[in-house]
Amino acid sequence: MGRQRKRYAIMIDYRTSTQTDNEAWTDAERIPRRYQTALSNCSQTLLRAANTAAQRQELLNQALAHLVDVVGVGRAYVVQEFVDNEGVLCLRLRAEACAPDVYSHLQVPSNQRVPWSLLGLQVRSWLMEGRPFGGPTEMAFAFNPDLIKLFQSQVSPLLSVLLLPLVMEGAFWGFIGFDDVQEPRQWDSDQVALLSTAAEILTSTLQRWELEDRLREQAARKATLAERQRLAQDLHDVITQTLYGLTLMARTSREALREGNMQTLSESLEGIEENALVAQRDMRMLLYQLSPLTLPTQDGLDTVLRDRLRRVERRLGLETELHIDSMIALEADRMEALYYVITEALNNSLQHSAATRVSVSLALRDDRLLVEVKDNGRGFRSDRVEPGMGLARIAQRARLLDADLIINSTPGAGTRVALLLPAERGDPIGG
Question: Over 80: is that where the pLDDT of 18 sits?
Fold first, then answer.
């Protein structure tokens, strides 16, 4: 006879009325192997890189799809607990995978804010103790007849459910759930144990993503502080020195006027005019850098670069050109890093090159992205880079992007700053 399995609240019977005991055990013994393959596929899927919420949701969906098939359920999903703005303890559906012809709940807006009281706070208490909850819905939710009616009225009626807690760093985070829309199945200990392993895999992934977000936030804060310190240094080195020069020239002009020395007065006034224009240029550049940067979409890079060229270079009398190939795929953090490299190169042109024309381009070269900033300024000997030209900051950002940095410049022939970095074709970021 078949072996007796440990029962939770509910238990599934693998045998049909036409199977012998030996056939039943053959099927049962295959289940752990199938689960092992599914869990391995689930784990491998969740090891892929994902930085955005959309990317992470897609990986969760794919991982859950492996489980849907092996468990033979209509739906698998991940639900997160949160407190809404009104202080109500709620649930939101974070990811989902459905069998063919089973109605998806993921795109239903109301499923992003479901009060725990609707599902039952006793269910939460059960899960918070680390115990699985489930069984045929008429039995598992017998305490709430209205909820059973709601389950039965769905497009794909919910006949059985299994919920497994997700706990991160000792705190209840939410749960992974499995819905059977074919029969009021009973879940046995083998399935619960193996699906608990899936819950552990998900928990590990969610913890890793949370840690990555923390590290990214810390890096962003450090980068913001470094940027503020750099701007403060620029204000001191550039604007303060220019204003000090204006003060000296104004004093010289006053003395020349008192002495009646018109030549010195004229030269001093010319110097005042020239330095005032330099201060205006530098202040315009620094004020733009203090403006908040927003790159909400792939098209954002094109938009902010055009805005930069319009508000700074063109107002200072430079001719500008911008070209960005379509179908360049860039993640938000890479777009932002590229923006800062480009603006740093533009700043160098303004401060050091005396250029009258500058161009910016982003172009695909096979599987690499070529970023170029070129000007027609005075240039310099690349083997004699002067301090304060900002090239060290560009080189540092290039290393963070895993990019090759190329600087071509000769006296009288302008300067070219170029980066080569990996790129993928995707949605257009501008044109």
Answer: no
Q: Scan for tokens 């069984």, then name that residue.
A: 135
Would strands 424-425 and 415-422 be described as parallel, antiparallel, or unpaired?
Answer: unpaired
- What does the pLDDT average to over 395-418? 87
Q: Which CA distances in Å does 332 have to 190, 227, 349, 417?
A: 43, 18, 26, 22
User: What mean pLDDT is predicted for residues 364-375?
Assistant: 89
How far is C-alpha 423 from the geometric centre of its chain's CA atoms? 17
- For Cα atoms 54, 37, 195, give the angle at the middle one, nearest 5 degrees: 70
| Per-residue pLDDT, 39 | 86
The reported pLDDT for the residue numbered 21 is 36
Region 248-269: what's the mean pLDDT?
Answer: 86
pLDDT number for residue 179? 93
Output the CA torsion 236→353→370→322 (10° steps).
90
Q: How confident is the prediction for the chain on average, in pLDDT?
A: 80
Given a contact cutoff of 8 angstroms between Cβ atoms, the answer to whether 186 and 136 are in contact is: yes
CA dist list (Å): 320 to 313, 357, 363, 373? 7, 6, 17, 11
Structure-block tokens of residue 375 = 């000007």
Q: How confident is residue 297, by pLDDT bands cut at 50, 70 and 90?
A: low
Measure the CA–CA gap between 97 and 76, rounded to whole angstroms.
5
The arithmetic mean of pLDDT across residues 76-101, rounded, is 93
Report how far residue 28's alpha carbon sits from residue 162's, in angstroms, rounded to the nearest whole number: 19
pLDDT band at 269 (very low <50, low <70, confident <90, very high): confident
